Amino acid sequence: MAKSIATCTCSTCGAKFEKEVFGHNRAEAESKRTWAEDHYDLCPACYKAKQASDDDRLATEFHLPALTGTERQISYANSLRIQHIRHIPEYFRELRAAYESFSTPEIQAKAKDHYPNEETTPENLAKLFVRDEYWRKADYAALLESDAGKVIDAIRNK
Ligand SMILES: [Zn+2]
């Protein structure tokens, strides 16, 4: 095993930063070093900042609810739901659009037919959809759940 240290330059702030690379032998380690120097162009701080702003943008786009729970739970639940949504954003756009359509008169009429004995508020319809397995629990939790503990349970047990 050979190790090499790539010296990379951040394209955002200009800082130099190092990245360890490994190869089965010296030549492989050197070739990975060159590759790394060409391809890693965000220093750890800028990477973190970019990740955080991407997360915020996604949270805004999907109108993710503010989370309640301990600070640790909130931070963990937030990263779980963001990862979950980022994995299949097109699907979540459809889900979000479906949720928004719940308040339209057409859907309300259908909902009252389908669930004559239930409240058909959008919030409650979403819960009924999970109960009746039209929606997966983890997807509901990522998009609509505000209890951080429930978000964690639903997404980890999916
Ligand atoms: Zn940087």
**Computed structural class:** mainly alpha
Main sheet: strand order: 1-2
Number of domains: 2
For the sheet with most strands, the description reads: 2 strands, antiparallel
Low-confidence spans: pLDDT under 50, at least 5 residues? none
Quaternary assembly: single chain
Tally of helical segments: 8
Q: What's the SSE blueprint?
A:
Elements: E1 2-9, E2 16-23, H1 26-39, H2 44-61, H3 71-87, H4 89-101, H5 105-114, H6 122-131, H7 137-144, H8 148-156
Antiparallel strand pairs: 1-2
Helix pairs in contact: 3-7, 3-8, 7-8
The protein binds zinc ion.
What does this structure look like?
This protein has 158 residues and is mainly alpha-helical. The chain folds into two domains: 2-46; 62-156, no CATH class. Helix content is 63%, strand content 10%. The protein contains eight helices and two strands. It has helices at 26-39, 44-61, 71-87, 89-101, 105-114, 122-131, 137-144, 148-156, and strands at 2-9, 16-23. It has a two-stranded antiparallel sheet. Helix 7 (137-144) runs antiparallel to helix 8. The protein is elongated, with a radius of gyration of 22 Å. 19% of the residues are buried. The protein binds zinc ion. Zinc ion (ZN) binds next to helix 2.
